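Narrative summary of target 7.
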Amino acid sequence: MREPLADDLVAEADNLVFQQKLLDALVQGSSVQLPGGACYSLLLFRGLKRLLHLLGGEGRFKRVRELIAFEHGLLNFPQQTASQFHFEALRVGDRSLMLSMLQTLLDGWPDKFTNVCRSARVSSSYLKNYISELPYWLYLPINDQLYDMPYSPSLMERREAKAYLIRNGEPATAIAVRRLLGMWTASDAWNIENPPWNRRRPI
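Modeled conformation, tokenized:
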């Protein structure tokens, strides 16, 4: 990107700085300026590759790409028609655009990333790669802040909760058991006014 991409297209200064950080991590084997780079750059680039594939694909995560494009006044269109996204097959100008979006997600890591995902209603199940494991620096905020599946107690937990209510002379109704276990009930006004951020079913 140090050279003009075309007669009228020159990479922005922020893109050049970001690319230099990536090159430094590649050469030095680590980076204190990028998330996940302090340990070993292989784990950094594994996570970056996963994010690029998600950004360029046509799965649920494309909502994040569309949101970033909208916020920056950019045209959004599918980068490739193939079922699997290949960053290295893009034109240089398109690669520059994808790296700019990637930089947006990494700025202020992980707050910007998780906030954009929540705004686009993209939860952890759409981000995890079940073929290969995610590096810990990427897995941690996804699992901690974007996990949206409701708590599902075991049968033993339900029985123990019911027994606890009976021992204390309280009604052991299904709603009382759910409330004791911290589960959502239709009568909880707070949950109605403040529903889960990515509720999968209607109230």
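Residues 13-145 form one domain.
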